[in-house]
Amino acid sequence: MPDLVAFISAVLIAAGAVFFIAGTVGLLRFPDTYCRLHALTKADGLGLALIALGIALTASSFGEVFRIALIWFFVAVASATGGHLIATYARRVDRAEGKEGS
Amino acid sequence: MTDAAILFDLLLAGSVIALAIASLTVRDMFAAIVLFVIFGLLSALAWVRLSAPDVALAEAAIGTGVTGALLLKTLHHLRYVTGKLGEGPARGLTPTAPVPAGVIWANAAFCGMITLGLALAFLGAPRSGPGFDALVAEAMPASGVDHPVTAVLLNFRAYDTLMEVVVLLAAVIAVWQIERGLSDAPAPALGEVWQGFARLTLPAIVVVGTYLLWKGSEAPGGAFQGGAVLAAVGLLLLLSRIYVPQPAHRGLARWAFVLGAGAFAGVALLVSGGGRVAFEYPAEHAYALILLIEGLVTISIAVTLAALFHGREPVAAPVPEGRNDT
Known about the structure:
B: mainly alpha
C-alpha cells in the first residue's frame, strides 16, 4: 500500500510540474500580457494544486495536510488577485496608449 | 538520490548568482526589482537547503517580501516625482535628475569596503573546526528558550540584535526627516478584488505573524520574521485604505518605533547589577524576559516596516480625497 500511495503521489507531483513547465513556456512564448497571465495563473493554480495533493498524500498527520491545504488556498487566492491586478494595470496602460479592444 | 540533490543544489546556486548579476545589470528598474525578488526567494530556498530555516524565513519575509514592497514603492515614487506616471506606460523610465557622481562613488566605496571586510572576515575565519554548535548546546539550559537560534539572537549575542533593532529605528527616523517636503503620490485604487483579498488574508497574516513570534522560543521563527509578516498587515491596511495614516497618530507611531529598542535596552540595563552585566538575564526569568523583548520588538519592527513602506510622516495637508495614499 505505501508503495502505491508513493507512486500516486509521484504521478501527481510530476503532473503538477508539467503544468508549471507549460505555464513557463506560455509566459515565454505568448504575445501579450493577457495571454501570458492566462498561461501563468492557470498553470500556477492547477500545477500547485496537483503538487500539494501529491505532497499531502505522503503527509504523516492531519495537521500537515491542513497546512498544505492552507498554503495552496492562500497561494491560489494571492495568485488570482495578482493576476487580476496585473491585468487591470495592463488594460489601463493599453487604454492610455489608445489600444482599445485588447 | 544524493546525486539528484547535488544537481539541484548546483542549479540553485547557479540561478542565485545569475539572478544577482541580472538584477544588477538590467536597465529597466522594474525588471531589476522583480529579478531581485526572485533572487531573494531562491536565496531563501538555498538557506533551506543549508538547513537554516530561521535565515530562510527571515530572507523570505524581510529580504524578499518587505524589501520587494519597499523597492516597488520607491520605484512608484521615483516615477511619480518625474511626473510621468498616469500619462502612459512609464516603463523603463529613469529619474530625470541624475544622481551626482560623488554620491555614486561614495556608495561604491562604502559597498566595496563592506565587501572587503566580509572577504577578510571570511578568509580570516578558521577553515575547519567544530564551530560554535557545542558551545551553544552547552549553554542552552541557561538561555531560557529551547531554540538555539533564538538563544543566540536574544541572549548570547543580544547586543548585536539590539543594534539591528536600532538600525531599523534610525532608518524610519531618517525617512521621516528626509521625506518631509515631498508630496504624496496619489496611487490608483486597487479595486474590489484587491479589497476582498485584503479582508480575506488579513486575519490569516495576523495569526501567522503571531505564531512565528510565539514559536520562536522552541522552533524557527522569532521577532524579525514575525515582525516582517505583521508588517505585511500594515501594507495591506495601507494599500486597501482600511487604515489611512493621520497626523494625530504620529505620537503613537513614534512610541511604537522606539518601543522595541527601548524595552530591549531597558531590560538589558535593569538585569545588570548585583554581579551581573547587561544582557545577563537571571536564568529563572530568562524565558519571560526574552518573550517580553521579542513581543515588543515584533510590534516595533512591524510598525516601523509599515511606516517605511508608507514613506513620509503623515502631515495635515489641505488635499481632499486620496491623500496619504501609498
